[in-house]
Amino acid sequence: MKNKDYKSYSYDQLLTFEKQGPVLIEKLVDQSDKKDTKIKDLKSRLEHIDETIKTSVEKKIGVKPGSSFRNFFDKLYDDNFGYFAGGCILLGFLHLKINVNLPIILSAMGAFILIGPGIMIGLMLGLTVLETIIKFLIGGDAQDKYQKKYEKLFEQIKKDKHKKPIELIHKKIEDLDDEKSTLYVERRDIEKALNEIVSLKRRAKNKEDRAKIAAFNNKARSAASYVRASLLKEILNKKKWECPYCHKMYDIENKNYTKLLDADHIHPVHKGGLSTKQNMILVCKSCNSKKKTLTLRQFCKIRRLDYEKTCNVLEKMGKDV
Ligand SMILES: [Zn+2]
């Protein structure tokens, strides 16, 4: 699955994502949990197969020597843990009560924390010693020999009878693990994007604003070139043309004159001037390159032109000044 690139989301998409993100995470966690349950189930099936093999091995070669003793102690330990613990607490409690005259609750706590575990450890040590003695009596060799035989037969049965299903289960577990990591990556990406949502939104907004401004500028540019073309049309049949700013005369009889003339925004675009016939005027390239973003008044001052006179000229041409 290809990861989503939240950096390329629009502002509106991010707003929706901000709302849906937590829900998505919950869904992903849920899916992952379901896969965990499936994996657990498959693993218990593997355990069950092992259990089945164990039973058939023991049917053939009997149980491990001394295992009846081991089972006996295991059972004693598992089944009677509660009695052990209770006995320990009682013994500890009596011990404290006799020696130190503490309030009863403190005695009980002290007994449980100090004396109880001591007695438990003692009992466990006793069991270990007993087990060692039994092992000595039966003989470690017999157990080792049995173990080797057991393992060999176990592997044999596993290979002969259960190879295919075991392989299949392993494959399924592997696939589920892969799916889980994909879900994890997806979830991590969402969490990361949610953590950065403020800056992502800001970036998207800036990008969209810039795009809007660029689109507006493009429109303005095409409007300006349209006005320039129609201004040029007005002087199509003239032989001479005078720059309304510098009053230099230009020979425009050969039609290359278009290259000599620029269309200036009298009130500059940067200051809100529009690309209309009233605000645009044909001027010589030299004047246009000097005026740039200057207002008419600033331009006249710098070029030492008479501002009032220039205004009159422009007004006569039907321009807004
Ligand atoms: Zn000029």
Describe the protein.
This protein has 321 residues and is mainly alpha-helical. It has 2 domains: 6-199, no CATH class; 225-316, Orthogonal Bundle (DNA Binding (I), subunit A), CATH 1.10.30. It is built from 10 helices and 4 strands. It has helices at residues 11-61, 67-79, 81-99, 104-138, 140-161, 163-195, 197-234, 285-291, 296-303, 307-316, and strands at 240-242, 249-251, 261-265, 280-284. The chain has a two-stranded antiparallel sheet with strand order 1-2. Strands 3-4 form a two-stranded antiparallel ribbon. The site of zinc ion has 8 residues, from strand 4 and helix 8.
Measured on Cα atoms, how large is the radius of gyration?
47 Å
Major sheet: size, sense and barrel closure? 2 strands, antiparallel
Distance, first to last CA: 63 Å
Could you name the ranges where pLDDT drops below 50 across 5 or more consecutive residues? none
Task: Name the shape in a single word.
Answer: elongated
Q: Spell out which ligands are present.
A: zinc ion
* Quaternary state of the chains: single chain
Number of helices: 10
Round the mean pLDDT to the nearest integer and report it.
86
Output the strand order for the largest sheet: 1-2
Strand content: under 5%
Q: Strand pairing plus helix content: what structural class? A: mainly alpha
Q: How many independent structural domains?
A: 2
Number of strands: 4
Helix proportion range: over 70%
Query: Topology as H/E string?
Result: HHHHHHHEEEEHHH
Topology of helices and strands:
Blueprint: H1 11-61, H2 67-79, H3 81-99, H4 104-138, H5 140-161, H6 163-195, H7 197-234, E1 240-242, E2 249-251, E3 261-265, E4 280-284, H8 285-291, H9 296-303, H10 307-316
Antiparallel strand pairs: 1-2, 3-4
Helix pairs in contact: 1-5, 1-6, 1-7, 3-4
Bound molecules: zinc ion.
